[in-house]
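S1.2 Input.
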Amino acid sequence: MTQETGSTNVRAVERALQILGCFDHTHPERGVSDIAKAVGLHKATTYRIVSTLVAYGYLERAGDGQRYRLGMALASLGFVALRRTDVRREAMPIMTDLAARLNETCDLSVYNRGEVYFLEVVQGSRALTIAAAVGRSLPVHATASGKVLLAHLPEAEAEAVLGGPLAAHTQQTITRPAELRRQLEVIRTKGFAFDNEELEPGVRAVSAPVRDQEGVVVAALSVTCPTSRLPLERVPALATEARQAADAISHRLGWQ
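S1.3 Output.
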């Protein structure tokens, strides 16, 4: 293989990865023209790469036949990675116990490009539970887990989020960067975050950081409840439960 051919192959891989990366929670489906615009490629080049990705199952046609979405081959690879994740493996027994004791939904999430990504969800046994799913992404500024992760990001990464638009999802969503910065400082001091109907009306959550053996925050453990089961006076007690569970996971990861 010549150096020129090798360079061309690398560019093709880069372009394919850019195309896969342009699909997200906001844009789960895109047409060829939309993809080309999003990644800055010619439409013909985009079509050739998209066709190859479809052939290998990494993209698939949406129901209308004109747009594309991420394919099951990509999902399969993602779940292989998730199942091998140390933090998920170590968290599962503790999350299962916590969800059973509280009869509430517990989830484990990580930071991913400005969003919170669910690694694992354990549902409580009550008839009314909070809908959550592995692989779902949510905004960092409007969730308890997101605020925990944001509070412990390197400053440059955190400022990239704080410097962008903070969309309002409910009347309770924090949309002013200065106010969110103050809350992040409180989160670092208290060791937990609270979502007071900031993403979804009628839903509250508490979240605590999970640390690796170096003390770096690598995930967030959350407990989510309907407001009817989480009055404000119960928040401190539930936060203590979340912190203890998160610390237990951290110890299993080697944090002392």
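S1.4 Remarks. DSSP finds nine helices and nine strands in the chain.
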